[in-house]
Amino acid sequence: MHCPKCRADLPDTAAECPRCGIIVAKYQEREEPVPRHTQDGAPGSDSTSEADPEPGGLATRLLGVESTTSMAAAVGRGIFLLLLALWTTTLVGGVSAERVNGSFIHLPNLVFHEAGHILFIPLGHFMTVLGGSLTQVLVPLVCAGAFLWQTRDPFGAAVAIWWAGENLIDVAPYINDARDLKLVLLGGKTGAEVEGHDWEYLLNAMGVAHKDHTIAAVVQAIGTLTLIAGLAWGAIVVLNQIGMLRRSRPTRL
Fold it and tell me: Distance (Å, rounded) from C-alpha 208 to C-alpha 171?
């Protein structure tokens, strides 16, 4: 026979594995799955087992309680999250075009921004203009959903939420410049030199151009809170996974 833990070859009468040291009978008893029971106590599937084959599935998925995660992966995620938190401190604060535009992630965001203008063309001029900023925020949210529901990777979803918050902070200076038109645009000219830009048009179309600084500050605050939420979620996932891995380490019997 084989050891149920390390798969070493054992004599049929062996009680203990000489390689990993487990007591075979106790290990098998501990690892044997507990059968589900119906309401009357008989073994079987209850009425919710088919509808929810994974008890507490949503909480498990959100909190990162995964049996397949390795300790190396969990620690690596923790290190990455720490670096992301340090980077976040350079992004938060007041609305600042220089700080945001100086970040290397601004250019990838800009790609999605320009693509959004094209995607929203069928919805009319207003949505075509709004589509740039809207798309650069929606893309990370779509990624978060894909990570969470398709690949069951809550840490990836948390990072994508952080990215959505970063995009809100990326948009805030654009809004803040609706009246000043001093922001240097993609072509190297300011809004005043090219007769306006996206948010100058959008706020004027909505009749709230005089509130551009207030709206920008609100978007900046929401972006900051989203950054923090993404970091907090990622930290919870990492801590849960490390704690679970420590608890699941087999003890020598």
Answer: 17
